[in-house]
Each structure stands twice: as C-alpha cells, then as structure tokens.
Amino acid sequence: MSEMLQIDVKALAEAALAARKRAYVPYSHFAVGAALLCADGQVFGGCNIENAAYSPTNCAERTAIFSAVYQGQRDFVAIAVCGGPDNAEPVEFCPPCGVCRQVLREFCANSMPVYLVKSADEIYATTLEGLLPKSFGPEDLG
Ligand code: THU
Fold first, then answer.
1. What is the pLDDT of residues 57-96, one digit of tens each?
2. 23 and which of 6, 31, 106, 128 could share a cystine (Cβ 3.0–4.6 Å)?
C-alpha cells in the first residue's frame, strides 16, 4: 500500500516549513518542523514544544508521529524535517535526533524516505535506515 502513493516531496517540504512556524521554543530558540505523510495521503505536522524543566521537551518529529498514531494512523510513507534558529529560515539541514529516529523505527519501514529540508528547493533525501543503521525494532523482540 505504502509504495503506491506518489510522494509530492515539495509539498511535504512546505508542510514541514509551515509546521515549524508553530514551534514553542523559548529556551533554545531553535525551531523545528516536521511533516509526516501517511499511506492514505494525510499529512500530520509537528513542531518542537519546549518546557521550563527542559527534559519534557518534545521534538517536532515525535509531535507529528504521536499525533498521527493518536488519530489512528500507523502506515507512514515519508517524513520531512526542517529546523534552525527561530528568527530566520533554515540555512542548514536539521537531521532527526537519535530518540526521534528510534521512535520512527517503531512504525516506519527501514526504507522509508526521510527528507531534510532547507527550503522547498533544497532537500536532502535519505532513508530511515540511512539515519539508523543496524537498528533495533519491534521484530527483534521475537
Ligand atoms: N529538536 C527537534 O525538534 N527535533 C530534532 O530531531 C532535533 C532537536 C528540537 C529539540 C529542542 O527543542 C531544540 O530542537 C534544540 O535541541
């Protein structure tokens, strides 16, 4: 099913950039956005949401995936991520942190495309496995 959906990478990049505008980042001032494409074509956005106690901070990727799973989605096709200082458009690629890579691994195929976005025209494409090789996932529990 997942393979049948044509991925509009530019549109997904734009969705990540739009989601980034919702970031709540009073401590790091580093705003991140993510857009997660589901097999049925729905896109779930996410932003990072920080906390005065720091460690409860939720990354943009996890905001997107947890929102989607709560809405009944479990079949994911691609994710786009962008980030950078909150006073400007992204100038560097923002790779997902290790915790978010592992959370993606729970629900996504190793081959799932991950698009790192500076703008709709500057996109670095990799895969979940490219970011998290030799990973531990649900099937390893037997
Ligand atoms: N952040 C994300 O939202 N996603 C990542 O994968 C990397 C880091 C956020 C967490 C924190 O709010 C800020 O970026 C600085 O680390």
1. 999 999 999 999 999 999 999 999 999 999 999 999 999 9
2. 31
Domains detected in the chain: 9-128 (3.40.140.10)
CA nearest ligand 1 atom 2, residue? 59
Q: Write down the pTM of the prediction.
A: 0.96
**Which ligand 1 atom lies nearest to the CA of residue 27?**
12
Contacts of 77 (CB under 8 A, 6+ apart): 2, 5, 7, 37, 38, 39, 112, 113
Residue 124: how many other CB atoms lie within 10 Å: 11
Q: What is the mean pLDDT of the chain?
A: 96
Please say if 3 is a catalytic residue.
Answer: no
DSSP 108: S
Going by pLDDT thresholds of 50, 70 and 90, the confidence category of residue 1 is very low
Given the residues 61, 89, 92, 129, the one annotated as active site = 61
Q: Hey, which of 24, 32, 57 would you mutate to test ligand 1's pocket, going by the most ligand atoms within 8 Å of its Cβ?
A: 32
